[in-house]
Design goal:
Length: 139
């Protein structure tokens, strides 16, 4: 099973270490095509500075993937775009959100939850293994 992981890059890197830990867990289920999202410096040297090349490569990986796992706590236009494309391509999607006082998840994400192909889970990090098992075990 090929997994496309989404997390904020240009929108903010405060969760980069968390992304790396989630990606490590995802790798037990299959290759993560976007493991660089969990790197401290996620810019791929071959694509640095070339937004068209980054978009083209990411869309190819997204189309190739079987499932999408997105950490959506840090708002990101790119992650929202990737999720929208994944919906259009009928991918199974898991969105992970850590509730924070004074902030809320976009209704465009939370409202898309259908319990089957688009799953939104509020979580704390200790819950990630069980959430991934439930989602990826049914793929």
């Amino acid at each position: 099973m090929k997994i496309y992981f989404c997390g904020s890059i240009r929108g903010g890197r405060c969760d980069a270490e968390l992304y790396g830990r989630i990606i490590e867990q995802l790798q037990a289920y299959g290759p993560v095509l976007t493991e660089h999202v969990g790197f401290k410096d996620p810019i791929l040297k071959d694509f640095e500075g070339d937004d068209v090349a980054i978009h083209t490569q990411d869309m190819a990986w997204l189309e190739e993937s079987d499932v999408v796992v997105a950490e959506v706590t840090q708002p990101s236009l790119g992650v929202g775009y990737e999720i929208g494309r994944a919906v259009a391509w009928k991918k199974r999607i898991l969105c992970l959100y850590r509730p924070t006082e004074g902030k809320g998840l976009s209704a465009m994400i939370r409202g898309a939850h259908d319990g089957k192909n688009f799953i939104v889970k509020d979580y704390q990090e200790a819950e990630v293994p069980g959430i991934l098992k439930e989602f990826l075990g049914s793929s």
